[in-house]
Amino acid sequence: MSPSFRSRSRSHSSEALFPAQNVPDSYLIAHIDGGARGNPGPAGYGVVITDQSGHKVGALHEYLGHQTNNYAEYSGLLAALAYALAHGPLALKVVGDSELLVKQIRGEYKVKSPSLMELYQRAQQMIGKLEWFSIQHTLRGGNREADRLANLAMDQGLGRTPSAPTSTAPTTAANRSPHIRTPATATEVRQLPMPRPPTQDST
């Protein structure tokens, strides 16, 4: 079982592990991925969101301009958190293939990079608004659709594929602040109605 916690009963310091809690009956699952070609280089993230039964309810991707892999991974996490806060339920399981991100969020690795610390603190603030949260690592083979969306975001940002119709314009490096945006400014590919520590860091 992946480490999980009820956020309102926990402070957001870098603790070793989140205390285990009972899994709620209703929750979202977000597969997240981010990448940068060249690291740093053209970057993007992809997020696939399902309900607890595995039914897809949303998919997000966004081109981030010139960034690092880790920045893109955190951007995917923040987009997933913002989606859960906006759409509910306030319970989220995150699955990602970045061991660094997963262990930093769990408190197993410290965050030393200033560029990541801002994103880490933003993530902890958003996690604190949830009623339940869990995060676990997966190998890249278990994250293929999120990886595909991240690559799609990079391709679209570089003008290599037609952009999918969206209700809001994709945010680019030219028109966004360096802070992470919410799904309202991310490219939402699909949204269906919901069915009812050791120190390690890098930029």
Number of domains: 1
Strand content: 25-35%
Structural class: alpha/beta
Total beta strands: 7
CATH topology: Nucleotidyltransferase, domain 5
User: Which architecture would the CATH scheme give at its second level?
Assistant: 2-Layer Sandwich
Strand order of the largest sheet: 1-6-5-2-3-4-7
Radius of gyration: 16 Å
Give a structural overview.
There is one protein chain. The chain is of the alpha/beta class and 203 residues long. It contains four helices and seven strands. The protein has helices spanning 69-87, 99-106, 114-127, 144-157, and strands at 4-5, 28-36, 41-51, 56-67, 91-96, 132-137, 187-191. Strands 1-6-5-2-3-4-7 form a seven-stranded mixed beta sheet. A hairpin with a 4-residue loop joins strand 3 and strand 4 (56-67). The longest helix has 19 residues, at 69-87. Mean pLDDT is 80; it is low at 7-18, 165-185 and 187-196.
In short:
With 203 residues, the chain is an alpha/beta fold. Helices cover 27% and strands 25% of the residues. Helix 1 runs parallel beside helix 3.
Output the keywords:
alpha/beta, Nucleotidyltransferase, domain 5, globular, 7-stranded mixed sheet, single chain, 203 residues
Topology:
Layout: E1 4-5, E2 28-36, E3 41-51, E4 56-67, H1 69-87, E5 91-96, H2 99-106, H3 114-127, E6 132-137, H4 144-157, E7 187-191
Parallel strand pairs: 2-5, 5-6
Antiparallel strand pairs: 1-6, 2-3, 3-4, 4-7
Helix pairs in contact: 1-3
